[in-house]
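Record format v2
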Amino acid sequence: MSLSLAFVLFLAVLLPLYFLAPRRGQWIILLIGSIIFYGFSGWRNLCVLIALTIIVYVFGRLLGRSLDRQTEILKAHRADGSWDKPTRRAFRDRCVARRKWLLAAGVVLTLSLLAVFKYDSLLIQTVNMLAGTSYPGPKLVVPLGLSYVTLSAISYMVDVSRGQLAPEKNLAKLTLFIFYFPQMWQGPINRYDELAPQLFAIHSFDAPRALQGALRALWGGVKKVVVANTVGLAVQAVMQASGNLGGTWTWLMILLYSIQIYADFTGGMDIALGVSHVLGIGLYENFDRPFGACSVADYWRRWHRSMGRFFTDYVFYPLSVSRLSQKLSRLSRRLPLWTATLVTWALTGLWHGAGWNFVVWGLCNGLFILLSQELRPLRRRFGEKFSRVAASRPLTWLCCSGTLFTVGLFRTLDLSPDAGRVLSLWGRAATPSAVVGLFDASLWTALGLSIAQWGLIALGVLAMWLVGRATPHVGDVHTPSLGERLARRPMLCAVVCALMVVAIVVFGRYGLGYNAMDFIYGQF
Amino acid sequence: MKKTKWIWAVLTFVILTALLFGAAQALLVPHDRAANPEAFLLQDYFEADTAQDEVVFVGDCEVYEAFSPVVLWQKYGISSRVCGTPQQLVWHSYAVLEEVFERSDPKVIVLGVYGLIYSEPQSEAYNRMVLDHLPASSTKWQVLSDAIVEGESKLSYAFPLLRYHDRWSQLSWQDVTTLFSHQEPVSVRGYLVQNGVVAGNAPSHEGALPPRATAFGEMALDYFDRIVTLCRDNNAELVLIKAPTDSWRYPWHEEYEAQVVALAEQYGLPYYNFLNEIETIGLNYTTDTYDAGLHLNVYGAEKLTAYFGKILVENYQLTDTRLRDHDCVVWTEDIARYEAQKKEGAK
């Protein structure tokens, strides 16, 4: 089903059924469709996701019941006055502790599914490294979307345990939350309180909305199949030639892999959000013009926002206010922040991939963000002293470019499990010969792309930049999106859609020996 | 917003997409025949008037390089055509024959038996040389299911642009000009003229073949059975042949031969193995091959055709079309092209 054509056929059947179904049965059509969609990825994957759903459902109900029981008993005792305040507090603490244990059990069980399929090789590799053994270990394939759905499931259980969310009593409804098909490729990581009301609401067909969704999905297709997959050829070539390129490898990867991953991830997200928009269900905006970020921290507030929000709300904040942090703050006021930030980023890295290189990647980001925070007073003073320079456009551009460069540099760690080797290549990239190497025309021709293909990539980057510029910031409700503006002119929209379809068919990279819809973030 | 506006928008989208798709397909699907003549052999067949054909040859390169319809007509008045393509396997031949019987009423079908040794799909390129040219039909769809190799998409045979779209970055001006110019057939009635002479002395290359002891596969035999039935249903005689090669490269093992003989007996079909008739035919592998013995050149093909034509006229009631004025006119053009190609080599 990950194949684009099969997916188009799937939508061609699902959409009419969804909008023609009896209003109250719409979500059931969506549930059946989502299960069928997921079923195409294999019955084993389906079993894993069903198991995850059952775990989340059971623990959600247990946590909810515990909370209800606590409220009822406290209410009863408050009414008859049989418990004094300390007794009530002691009882509440006992209930909270019990829920913590329940939540921990639910989270551990949920994560264990992910651990079995995603981190098995890392675990065995680490054991082998430490013990000097060479166990081969099983090579399990991570079920489609499991990384994303796991985080959604954890957020659901945590929110229920905090009393911020009433547990879902209908297993089928919770199943739809877990299985909802547009999020399966690469997220976004949804929250139940945001998604569920939309999933179970009644949606009638709305032509302008459908057109907006289709435009966005097609634009996503262009980014993914045309730009990302074409740049992917060059990235592959650079990977294969890494031994001969020296420090130039790093420069090439910063440039090419950044383009690839941007087109790939935002393209996939546009497809997911566009399709969901056609159904009338708005998913969380995962990007907010990340290329306009002026610092690494700002970048991570704009890139993969749903992941950032999850780790901020469910890892960073709880860590920051934990007892450990309180103890650490006695040693140094900044220590809890440093600890929470580094742990959060290490976990973010680990979530991205089952390899220590990903942990190093996460730590690099975390360290850089912390260092820039520590330098904030210096920056402030600079801003006060040279206010005109600080607010000038060239400096903003320089900051944005520097941010993209830094993030791109860190991202090269994704590409090889040997983090040490990548770090040494960073060192070699600083040499003049590495930079000069970039201007060697033969290097670019050796990457296997024709001039026409390089031209296509350049055109794609320009188009992505222009569309990005025309896209309002997330939360800006006053500026209409490009899709909204286009949808007001159906004929123009029809022409744009036709051009995008043909662009995907002609310029896209798909076909024999090529799975056009294998998303990079889908592997995380 | 008015409903009609939306209907017009949808119509615009559909029509514009179809037009752009069609234009891209015409431009990007290879259409320069001179660049790869073998790929257009069947297109020649579908563009020709085939109603008068009495003998049709199907099979692989051993067939379309071994029989010259011009010689058959000049010597015996037989109106024939070759529908061979590179590595045409039995299921391909079956699909081709379905179309042949749709368009004409041949009395004799000559099937090259070399394809029988393969029972699995072999190569996308050779699939395309047959299936890309066949019109849409249930037979084509069914054969496609059996013929495609792993990773191929059936849909790309209905919309070849899905396969050839990658060519956009290699387009040349030639692709545009050939799109709007008339292109001559690459063959003469399916026979691809090769006038080079390269004697056979290359080393053996048996590794590319199925093991000699391999029994013919289920799929090959199933399609062979369908071919026999198809010919019988259309009152055509099926003749099996093994073309002569200096078989150092793709040998014809005695195990293969035994199985073909058994099949011929089982179905009551005539079988001619020309490997046993090299001397009688007068073939000389220092002058009659253009690729060191693997295929016959035009001189070898003329000898073999002359020999086989005699067999055909002696055993089947075929019309001598040389006596018909209309046929003479049609053949004059083919003969002229044949003679020109014989002199200059195939274009």
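Residues 3-28 of chain B form the longest helix (26 residues).
Chain B touches chain A at residues 1, 5-6, 8-10, 12-13, 16-17, 20-21, 24, 28, 124, 151-153, 155-156, 161-163, 165-166, 168-170 (CB under 8 Å).
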